[in-house]
Design brief:
This protein has 2 helices and no strands. By secondary structure, the chain is an all-alpha fold. Helix 1 (2-12) runs antiparallel to helix 2. The protein is rod-shaped. The protein starts with a helix and ends in a 6-residue tail after the last helix. The chain crosses the membrane at residues 42-66. Keywords: Membrane, Transmembrane, Transmembrane helix.
């Protein structure tokens, strides 16, 4: 979101470049970094969720096994 605001600020406030060239420059400067950081964020979030899911399933299985041992009944 910050990158988008920076792009808008750069396009409409800065007078160094004009019109379409300014927008293209802003997108080249900020757009690619924003897209890659978004992709990395999605990948890291998915990895973290899978890791948490793995630990939940693993510990649920361990607890179920310990509570259902035949020799304890």
């Amino acid at each position: 979101m910050l990158c988008v605001l920076q792009c808008i600020h750069t396009v409409y406030v800065s007078s160094a470049r004009s019109g379409c060239n300014e927008w293209e420059w802003a997108m080249l400067k900020y757009g690619r970094n924003w897209a890659f950081s978004l992709i990395e964020h999605v990948i890291y979030s998915a990895s973290l969720l899978l890791l948490l899911l793995f630990f939940f399933i693993y510990f649920s299985g361990v607890c179920w096994f310990l509570h259902n041992l035949p020799c304890w009944k």
